[in-house]
Amino acid sequence: MTLTNLRRLLTVAVLGASFTAHADTTLDRINSRHEITVGVMIGGSPFGSLDPATQQPRGFNVDLANELGKRLGAKVQLVSVLPSTRVQFLQQGKVDILIANMEYNAQRGEILDHVATPYYRVGGTAITLKTSGIARWEDLRGKPVCISQGSSYIRPIVERYGAIPRAFPGSSQSLLALRGGSCVAAVHDAAPLLYPLLQSDPEWRDYRTLQPEIEPAPSVIWVRQGEHDTTTKLDTFVRDLHRNGWFIATEAKNGLNPPSPALAEWHRQLPAEN
């Protein structure tokens, strides 16, 4: 699917949910106070972690939040969120936007609005001991699987593969439970979390991941329903960051490997749309 068609699909989803939405106040509030509050995941992945030297947040999503703040002329206030709290933080006004490893799906699109142009594409994978006997997704049937509360992967592992989910507040707790033997596998985002974990942490050398990735979906910036001025403004920034190669450079800076084919695809597509 081209980026143009994907944007049209996501824009239709935004408009379909807008009839009962409240008026946009977020952009006015950002402009008046010259500050934007961004919910991010600080879970230890290349998308969000703490710098051990400074104890300050760093990562792909942090860089994106700071870049958007710079373009808005606003100070960026980062708020750490979890999969189990991120939607509530947005709906309750604790954050202005979410850049929090939260991919688009229809259920989320019914309760929130989002920037039409995606900034990444993510699928899920399962991590399991090489000696577990789990070689295919189908091998999870009837077995306990650790996963984050609110994860979009819960439904497919249950409905498609018959796994028994054991939900935890976040990926850190889920992975600790896997290492403690509470489940045979843990299912989380592949690129932001599990691939870097296996590549960089020798404590996980006895583990492997399953292919193919499940539920590949666009990562988008989320806002409250009806915040169309905000989404329109941010969309111009996101499109320009694809066009000028900022996302590709930021992916490399943060050590995300393998590189996302989606970023290269969107970088090629956007110049022709001028």
From TrEMBL:
CDD domains: PBP2_polar_AA. This is Amino acid ABC transporter. Pfam families: SBP_bac_3. One of its GO terms (cellular component) is extracellular region. GO terms for biological process: amino acid transport. Keywords: Signal, Transport. Residues 1-23 form the signal peptide. It comes from Caballeronia mineralivorans PML1(12). Belongs to the bacterial solute-binding protein 3 family. The keyword Signal applies. Residues 35-258 form the Solute-binding protein family 3/N-terminal domain. The keyword Transport applies.
